[in-house]
Amino acid sequence: MTKDVKPKATRRKFIAGAAAGTAALSMPMISTAQTVTSMRFQSTWPSKDIFHEYALDFAKKVNDMTGGELKIEVLPAGAVVPAFGLLEAVSKGTLDGGHGVLAYHYGKSNAIALWGSGPGFGMDANMLLSWHKYGGGKELLAKVYQSIGANVQSFVYGPMPTQPLGWFKKPITKAEDLKGLKFRTVGISIDVFQGMGAAVNALPGGEIVSAMDRGLLDAAEFNNASSDRVLGFPDVSKVCMLQSFHQNAEQFEIMFNKTKYDALPPKMRAIIENAAEAASADMSWKAVDRYSKDYIEMRTKQGVKFYKTPDSVLSKQLEVYDKVAEKKAAESPIFKEIVESQRKFAERAVAWDMDTNAPRRMAYNHYFGKKAAPKKS
Hints:
Layout: H1 11-26, E1 37-43, H2 50-65, E2 70-75, H3 86-92, E3 97-100, H4 125-134, H5 137-147, E4 152-159, E5 166-168, E6 182-184, H6 189-195, E7 199-201, H7 208-213, E8 219-220, H8 225-231, H9 233-236, E9 239-242, E10 251-257, H10 258-262, H11 266-301, E11 305-308, H12 311-331, H13 333-356, H14 360-368, E12 375-376
Parallel strand pairs: 1-2, 1-3, 6-7, 6-8, 9-11, 11-12
Antiparallel strand pairs: 3-10, 4-10, 5-9
């Protein structure tokens, strides 16, 4: 009886096969030309402002994460349109996108300014971002944009610290000191400061200092120590009042033309959304580092005197804001819907925050004394 004998693989055949496989793996792959999608953005900030830097940071994250498949170029304010013309330019496709704040669209819809222009029912900017993502804010913003025919895809990001009351010729000691002042602010804060007796002029950030220098403004607020310092506020004023409710919880906004955004591949849209959140975290960390350095720089080297806004002024802000919001809610159903949504979210979020977090002032005073506290006016 014969047995079937299977041919054995010889060492020579194995080596030959292995060599062929190795050769196949080492063969250079034939690459196809990468398609690059370019987008032109504009910020609402001068190129020297840290806010423009934040816009560049976001663009770099997207450009890097897409491996160059999407290339966003960011121009400074005024390169294509004025700062307050960004929404219209992006909506029409004159620009592919932009970087700014929602309060700059106040002329299109009062309700938009509820994203950051006002006391936020005690929420800080990070809490308001939480409301935006998890409390219905994102859907409400889309509803507002739809109501005004804005063809944009919005990403709200970048929590800002509480903004100063502003820069003045002398310290503000009581609410009456604001009466008659030619003052710069934006958003719902326009109505609040008007309600406190100021004559308000809404100007973009890059125009404020020159207006103060020429006497067109008596006082102004912008945002933070780094922006205020580099824009030249210490050159026209040596008095800055810290703490205010007029912009207690503001954030930035990244906008895309919606038609162009929707045409992007799903992978690219996902990268953009995640890049916005990554940029939000990075911006908040960079702000702590840079703002604190510039705050000390202005105090110790530029002769700026910082004062805490009196509680009586803060209380008056809340009273006036409530009247402004009540009037606007009566005139606009969407304004009312947003206010009610924010209030509901804030009631539990702020209570949790106050009950949970230890007071930083106590710990700071324990380790460093009271040298950091702003003066009382």
